[in-house]
Write a structure and sequence with these properties.
The protein has about 130 residues and is mainly alpha-helical. The protein has one domain. Helix content is about 80%, strand content about 0%. Helix 1 packs antiparallel against helix 2, helix 1 packs parallel to helix 3 and helix 2 runs antiparallel to helix 3. The protein is elongated.
Length: about 130
C-alpha cells in the first residue's frame, strides 16, 4: 500500500511539473504556425502579382524581425505572458500590413478591376 501511494505521488508530481513545459511549447507552436501562414500569404501575393518587389521585400523584412524577436524571447527557454502578447501584437500588425499591401492599388503586370472603374469615372468627368 505504501509503495502504491509513493508511486502515485511520484507520477502526480512528475505530471504537474511537466504541464508548464507542454503549455509553453503549445504557445510557441501557435506563434510558429501563424508565422508560417503569414509567410505563405506573402509568397502567394508575390506569385499572383498582388505585391510589388518592394512590398514583398518590406513584408519579408518585417517577418524576419518578428522571427528574431521570437528567438530573443526564447533565449531563456520559454515565452512569458508579456513576450507572447508582444509577439501577438507584432504578428497582428504584420497581418494587417500583408492585407493592406496585397489589396492596395499597385499590382505587378496586370490592371486591377478597381482601376477600370476609376478610369470610367475619369472619362465621364472630362
Amino acid at each position: 500500500m505504501k509503495r502504491t501511494i509513493a508511486l502515485l505521488s511520484i507520477i502526480g508530481l512528475g505530471l504537474s511539473l511537466s504541464a508548464p513545459v507542454f503549455a509553453a511549447k503549445h504557445h510557441e507552436s501557435r506563434v510558429d504556425v501563424r508565422q508560417e501562414r503569414q509567410w505563405d500569404r506573402i509568397e502567394q501575393g508575390r506569385e499572383s502579382g498582388e505585391l510589388t518587389r518592394r512590398e514583398f521585400r518590406r513584408l519579408k523584412k518585417e517577418q524576419r524581425q518578428i522571427a528574431l524577436l521570437e528567438r530573443t524571447f526564447l533565449e531563456d527557454g520559454r515565452l512569458s505572458r508579456l513576450e507572447r502578447r508582444l509577439l501577438k501584437a507584432k504578428q497582428d500588425e504584420a497581418s494587417k500590413n500583408i492585407f493592406r499591401l496585397k489589396h492596395n492599388e499597385r499590382a505587378v503586370g496586370r490592371q486591377r478591376a478597381d482601376d477600370h472603374r476609376h478610369a470610367d469615372r475619369v472619362r465621364w468627368q472630362r
